[in-house]
């Protein structure tokens, strides 16, 4: 069983590489022949209209869709040059290294402290001082510490939606992944909470590699370095965000950006 994904001493700046990848729900092809490289410490946005396969491609990157019996894949997704779909990969280790934040904030029905400490204990951290330090550090990195430092024993469900989402981010980064996958993390939030999460994601790129699904052109433009545009299961165009948004090469991308499809 492979339980490490060593960072090889290579010149490659790519952490993940999707190669000739198809994903199916039963007979339905949801992602067709995808090829993408995800660069280290950058923010890559996967953009496109609803139902085009963004989420499926993202969820394939840490094998979370394995839980669906109908889900099948072909092709490869390399993480540090190892195919994550290789039968000898330990998916629990993989998901520790490639964490995920979902659309709807999903804190556990327990205290703010326990929401983070829970995952830390699962990876073997039991020393009380270390737990406290790691919880504090994760909350600081998620720009939530100042708001909750006096309420760590309060139920996480009492927090606002935006705070809950930052807590979910804290929970994810506490176990020190290398990549964070965000699946429309602000679509359930108001503009102020959205702005906080967007600026947090930009800060997190200093330490983590980030892939974010969004159907929002403004969001991709504000925070991402690279954009992958998908339509009907296929990657239509990809490249530096500033170039793709201002000078799209493909007619479908142009139509999406001008609001003609969406
Ligand atoms: P997006 O994230 O762009 O909205 P998705 O990746 O969620 O798109 O969906 C791509 C296609 O796969 C859609 O046609 C959707 O209906 C289908 N799909 C998504 N999830 C499932 C599922 N669990 N079972 C069956 N079909 C699904």
Highlighted features:
262 residues; alpha/beta; four-stranded antiparallel sheet; binds adenosine-5'-diphosphate
Walk me through what this model shows.
This protein is of the alpha/beta class. The protein has one domain: P-loop containing nucleotide triphosphate hydrolases (Rossmann fold, 3-Layer(aba) Sandwich). Helix content is 35%, strand content 26%. It contains ten helices and ten strands. The strands form two sheets. Strands 6-7-8-3-9-10 form a six-stranded mixed β-sheet, sandwiched between helices. Strands 2-1-4-5 form a four-stranded antiparallel β-sheet, with helices on one face. Strand 4 and strand 5 form a beta hairpin. Helix 4 crosses helix 6 and helix 6 packs parallel to helix 7. The chain is globular, with a radius of gyration of 18 Å. The termini are far apart. The model has no long low-confidence stretch (mean pLDDT 95). The site of adenosine-5'-diphosphate (ADP) has 12 residues, from strand 2 and helix 1.
Sum this structure up briefly.
By secondary structure, the chain is of the alpha/beta class. It has 10 helices and 10 strands.
Q: Please bin the fraction of helical residues.
A: 25-40%
Cα(first) to Cα(last) distance is: 43 Å
The CATH topology corresponds to Rossmann fold
- Associated small molecules: adenosine-5'-diphosphate
How many strands, what sense, and barrel or not for the largest sheet? Answer: 6 strands, mixed
**Major sheet: arrangement of strands:** 6-7-8-3-9-10
Question: Which quaternary structure do these chains form?
Answer: single chain
Instruction: State the helix count.
Output: 10
What is the CATH C-level name?
Answer: Alpha Beta
CATH superfamily: P-loop containing nucleotide triphosphate hydrolases
- Decide which structural class fits the backbone: alpha/beta
Order of helix and strand elements from N to C terminus: EEEHEEHEHHHHEHEHEEHH
What is the radius of gyration? 18 Å
Record field, number of beta strands: 10
Strand content: 25-35%
Detail the poorly predicted runs. none
Question: What would you call the shape?
Answer: globular
């Amino acid at each position: 069983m492979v339980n490490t994904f060593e960072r090889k001493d290579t010149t490659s700046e790519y952490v993940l590489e999707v190669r000739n990848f198809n994903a199916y729900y039963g007979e339905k092809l949801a992602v067709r022949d995808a090829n993408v490289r995800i660069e280290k410490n950058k923010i890559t946005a996967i953009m496109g209209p609803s139902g085009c396969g963004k989420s499926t491609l993202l969820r394939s990157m840490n094998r979370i869709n394995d839980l669906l019996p109908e889900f099948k894949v072909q092709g490869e997704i390399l993480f540090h040059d190892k195919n994550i779909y290789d039968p000898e990969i330990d998916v629990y280790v993989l998901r520790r290294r490639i964490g995920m934040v979902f659309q709807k904030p999903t804190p556990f029905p327990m205290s703010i402290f326990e929401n983070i400490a829970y995952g830390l204990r699962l990876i073997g951290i039991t020393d009380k001082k270390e737990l406290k330090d790691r919880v504090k550090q994760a909350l600081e990195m998620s720009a939530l510490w100042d708001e909750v430092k006096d309420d760590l024993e309060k139920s996480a469900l009492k927090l606002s939606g935006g705070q809950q989402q930052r807590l979910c981010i804290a929970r994810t980064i506490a176990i020190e992944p290398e990549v964070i996958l965000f699946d429309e993390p602000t679509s359930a939030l108001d503009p102020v909470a959205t702005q906080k999460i967007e600026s947090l994601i930009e800060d997190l790129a200093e330490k983590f590699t980030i892939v974010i699904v969004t159907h929002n052109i403004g969001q991709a433009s504000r925070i991402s370095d690279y954009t992958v545009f998908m339509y009907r299961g296929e990657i239509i165009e990809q490249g530096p965000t500033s170039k793709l948004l201002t000078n799209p090469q493909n007619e479908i991308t142009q139509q999406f950006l001008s609001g003609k499809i969406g």
